[in-house]
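User: structure tokens for Peptidase U61, LD-carboxypeptidase A, please.
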Amino acid sequence: MLREGDTIGMVAPAGPVTEREQIEKAVSAIEELGFRVIVGPGCYEKWGYLAGSDAVRARDINAFFANPEVDGIFCMRGGNGSPRIMDKLDLKTISRNPKVFLGYSDITSLHLVLNHKAHFMTFHGPMPTTEFIKPDFAEYAREQLVRALMSPEPLGEIASPDSAPPIETMSPGNAEGELVGGNLALICALMGTPFEIDTRGKILLLEDIYEENYRVDRLLTQLRLAGKLEEAAGIVIGEFTEWEPEEERNYLPIEDVLESILLPYNKPILKNVCFGHGKYKATLPLGALAQIDGSRSRLVVLESGVVA
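Assistant: Done. Predicted tokens:
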């Protein structure tokens, strides 16, 4: 559990931030939450679409997990490149030193390896240079973040703010299991690798950005053919945002894509849950036990992702 005065290590496992001013603003934003900050050297580097070389990006993560003075690790931003360093993580050291680890989007790949291989919970939630520094960083997202990282109490119901679309039941029923998943494209990119997602008896979280509906169809079909949808206890759909159809005449609504692939399983499924790339982001502890209550369209997190 994080407390005021704890030290956060900020890392850049994926894309770069080209303006140093953004990093400085991110540090200030983390400090405003009550923490001290150490910035990983890789946050200042850039190699094309990556924040430095693979060695540099992996080194910062390994160093912060090994450093007893660092209490939590926040990923600066997503982008591309996190899968490139999965096999470069020192999992033996990391598993002996579990810490709060925060990020989403491309960071999904690191959640998978830390949850499955290092055996501790991590947090799917907003990131410093992506959300913290924005003027419209929603109060909802801030409150959800602080509660998830700084309270040993179970999160309970993940409710939406009044200004967001209400959570709906896509397929009825109740389910209970550990939360797993995140970004759909990253989950599919790791199929057939040692870090492939394990959905057996779990509640699968799915969201994405910049993906045409036909590509969402393709990605979900990959999970279907791999048995990952069948094995899940239930499914929770977040936001699929910021895309435009290439050809209007071939357009198929995302609702139709999701329903045609997911509904045949007759599993409990919720949609419009506030996680993903939209404005309102709940911070969800991956690996924590949760419950889908389809009769009341509720996602309830039954345990905390941190300990006192």
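User: Anything notable?

Assistant: The chain has ten helices and 14 strands.
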